[in-house]
Amino acid sequence: MNLNYAPEDREFRAATRRWLETNVPTQDLKTLDERKAWHRKLYEAGYVGMLWPREYGGWGATPMRQAIVQDEMARVSAPPPINGLGIGFIGPTIIVHGTEAQKQRYLKKMLTAEEIWCQLYSEPNAGSDLASLKTRAEDQGDHFLVNGQKIWTSSGPIADWGILLARTDPKVAKHRGISCVLLNMRQSGVEVRPLKQITGSSLFSEVFMTNARAEKSDLIGNVNQGWEIAQTTLGYERGSNSLGRVTRYATAFNQLVKATKELKRGGRPLIDDPAVRAKMGRIYADLEVQRYAALRVLSALQKSDSPGAASSITKLSYTEFEKRYYELALEILGPFGQLMVAREEFEEVDTSSGEPGTFATAFLWSRAGTIYSGSSEIQKNIIGERVLGLPKEVRADRLKA
Amino acid sequence: MDFSFSSDQQLLKNSARAFLDEHCKPATVRLLWDDPRGESDTMWKEMAQLGWLGLALPETYGGSGLGMVETAILLEELGRAAYPGPYWPTVLAAGAIEAAGTDAQKKRWLAAIATGDARATLALLDADLDWDPAAMTTRAEKTAKGWALSGTKRFVPWAHVANVLLIPARTPEGPTVFLVDPATAGLTLAPVQGMDLATRWVHLAMDKVAVGPEALLGGPGQAAPLLAGLLRRGAVGAAAEMLGAARRCLDMAVGYAKVREQFGQPIGSFQAIRHKCSEMLLEVENSHSAVYYAAWALDAKAEDAELAASVAKAYVGDASRKVCGEAIQVHGGIGFTWEYDLHIYFKRAKALEPMYGDADYHREQIVRRVAS
Fold this sequence. Notes:
Chain A is an alpha+beta fold.
């Protein structure tokens, strides 16, 4: 055991800090073009696509270096790069399963955010049971004819391309009739409708496909191999945001401390109230444990021990923590915690999963983490079956299959 | 950065597991419940031969010079076995003698502890059960021949088998620690028994207990940092032991859920049980991160070592109670019986929960550090 950062990683952190100090935009990035320009600047500095192999335009860096960059960016609340899903896992899927022509056509423009990507997986009736998806892709010789509806699509309105899971054989068992294909979002058969969330903003969309066209040359892997591809792609970004996430929690905690010194109960600052202190102590202990766990994951990745199903433990841990955290924060802040527009310094936080905003925004966003990317219940199924080796449950669809 | 155990550390863990699986079976623990001493001298001597008692002592005194990470590895395994005996109080006290003792005190005690010929313990709690060293009520008054100690010490672990007691007391100069022979006149030992029959506590009543100047551990009034360090180290060690007990309970629950059938299926196939087991694993893994981070931070003298110790004790205290309790729930009725072994570990975790500062105490320490 040695939890000291390697000297070269400490040096890298210092260099990253210096770069950010001179380059972080001083004003909010308002337009997509401004965000793309910032993304490109980050890419050229070596801070985007860090884990991608160099031959595809990446930087071949370690997960630790990437986590350090994310951490330093969180420290100064730097705007994040865009195209996260593309760079995080669609690109790696193409690298692992794609053809040489697909790699040449798509990867570089994805890295530079010249083309924005979205994921077309979930459907209104296929959430946790993703394999029951209904969107159809019919073989038309040189292309597929795509009909159906997708939901929870991030970056939908700005996406140029999407990675689509669609049914290509309705007659076989549900997992075996799905294909994975790249879909041009800029065509008349694709309609994107923003979906308003409980935060009031629209970071997700519904996507309707009516006789949309996907080229055969854009098929990833073989026909009906889509489920396998979706299951086996591990992505390159595991653990990358682990430190940055905890740093954002800690920044928010400092604002909470400030609030407890300004707000009063019974004529004295909240911070002197034993009940409030007990809550603060609980939050901070929990927060530190998330940090230690993040270091443990990074150390495993460093030694290229694949965390595998154990990454379900990490996801379950921090998303459930985030709910507890912001619930306690809002209890402490009282009605100030309800404000959706920051009026005082201590109300502003950078929510780890969504948009920047107030504690209320963070509180609302914390409800999303335990649903997206496999709900807490799905994570517990995975942990139970694959980590603890508990017997599989008897499921109606398995009985049929 | 490397959060995993080195090969030597893993070897230590494996050999501790193998030894305790053979020599500290649940049946062994049960036999010692009825023993007046409550521990086995044979096991103590074997532990000494394995180098466990001198693990963290310098080689000059027959030790191995290892750190808190290795100690925590052992303590986790001892907790997993619900080992009955004065291992942790002896090792903690030895560390204090090594850190603050005179050459004569070190010569007198450290080698004897490393060889298994002596046991030690420490009396950190006074009459009103306040873990804050500043709240100490036991007094030591200067006499012609040395000092006279008066007061009450409570829940002193394994004092009835100890050869030497570390007793903190208030002097006009400030907090001071004395090394006291338990047979000294004026000192009365009264055993108290909690729900864990494999944990023994003793109440000490002191009425002008006379000790010589050679009993001073460190200078008079200088003991505040020593006491804070003992509490911190004690807390991390207790957290490691609770982690071990929790992991044992988790393993038992998962093993049972795989074989126990109801409604024609193993109960582990039901999400109600599987999800509970997954939540227990989450708590155990987070506890592992907390314990070993804190142990490493103590060894590395990291700037957040004190914070990490409080985080570990607060987090693991709550987590182990939850995990051990849920293990009973997964077992159902059998888990509530005396003859089933689960309660041995459930009670061990519970017995350690209030020791070296409970979760509330450590949460307050955390707030003092990060929100002042």
